[in-house]
Write a structure and sequence with these properties.
Distance between the termini: 30 Å
CATH architecture of the largest domain: Orthogonal Bundle
Number of helices: 12
Order of helices and strands: HHEEEHHEEHHEEEEHHHHHH
Number of strands: 9
Number of domains: 2
């Protein structure tokens, strides 16, 4: 029995069949006019991104596995009340993917194509699971392991900033581990392009637990919001919850805006120094506000990190995921 064919049939819902559009969308340099869905065996759904499904697929030509993000064109073209917002998110993601294909800690886009109904983005398949999954399983990470992940995240964010892109949605669910244990950032739907160190935006977006105070206040902000998010993720890895977390969203927002950062046992002095510098409520005084990634690298917390080796993937990861059969894995997600 052809399982991939059955899967493909099952993935078509009635809305998909009844809402086709023949209008093409500009996919830019990544567009491959010769590619088509039948080039792949679609094996399983491995996650959902900002605006579509992500499928594990095996290319028939060479047997290689890819994560393919599939987006319905009707989402972009037919729903007038959300067309501008959603198309902006989808095209921002595509644009960011195009710019980052060679960075070691950002998911790479191989190419894209389209049919009458759908857009397809052929991405790296990253099979070590979400950082969120591993953190939920272990509750906290030892400081050396957290330091390794944070250093690789900072490198990826610094690279995005060098392209005048603010990531804006750093969280454990958007961070994958590859089969060796290196991190890979995914899901660029909330990225904001064209933001240099001296420029700002004021869009209210992101994940509540990790929102910087200036975002909550709807004030203009810049790439320093990413360094706040980095501090929030580091805090969560060390202590099990984001720094100002509450089940009550309004209380959590109030905590982010007004509650001082509380010191907790179990972290080194340099870790606390970094957390205090990253989780500075005034973005103009936050670590990274003057010289961006260079300030992060220079902090004592990273004194043992050899950044050139790290960015060449020469530093051995402190943890290697147990990568099982790709068809059995449940915590996969790409793009």
């Amino acid at each position: 029995m052809d399982k991939s064919q059955n899967f493909s049939d099952a993935s078509e819902d009635e809305d998909d069949k009844n809402s086709s559009t023949s209008r093409n969308i500009n996919l830019g340099p990544s567009g491959n006019p010769h590619a088509k869905p039948t080039d792949f065996d679609f094996l399983k759904v491995i996650g959902k991104g900002s605006f579509g499904k992500v499928l594990l697929a095996k290319r028939k030509l060479d047997g290689k596995y890819y994560a393919i993000k599939v987006l319905q064109k009707r989402v972009i073209l037919n729903r007038r009340e959300v067309i501008y917002s959603e198309q902006k998110h989808i095209m921002a993601e595509r644009n960011v993917l195009l710019k980052n294909v060679k960075h070691p800690f950002l998911v790479g886009l191989h190419y894209s194509f389209q049919t009458t109904d759908k857009l397809y983005f052929v991405l790296d398949f990253v099979n070590g699971g979400e950082l969120f999954f591993h953190l939920q399983k272990e509750r906290t990470f030892p400081e050396p392991r957290a330091k390794f992940y944070i250093a690789e995240m900072a490198s990826a964010l610094g690279y995005l900033h060098s392209l005048n892109i603010v990531y804006r949605d750093l969280k454990p669910e958007n961070i994958l581990l590859d089969f060796e244990g290196h991190i890979v950032l995914t899901d660029f739907g909330l990225c904001k392009e064209g933001i240099s160190q001296a420029e700002t935006t004021s869009t209210f977006c992101g994940t509540p637990e990790y929102l910087a105070p200036e975002v909550l206040r709807k004030q203009p902000y810049d790439n320093t919001v990413d360094w706040w998010c980095l501090g929030s993720v580091l805090y969560e890895m060390l202590f099990g919850l984001p720094p100002f977390y509450s089940r009550d969203t309004h209380e959590m927002y109030d905590n982010i805006l007004h509650k001082p950062l509380m010191m907790r046992p179990g972290a080194s002095n340099t870790a606390w120094s970094l957390l205090q510098a990253l989780l500075e409520k005034d973005g103009t005084h936050r670590l990274g506000s003057r010289d961006d990634f260079n300030e992060i690298k220079a902090h004592n917390f990273f004194s043992a990190i050899k950044w050139d080796d790290l960015e060449q993937r020469k530093v051995p990861p402190p943890f290697t995921p147990n990568v099982v059969n790709v068809l059995k894995r449940k915590n996969l997600y790409c793009g």
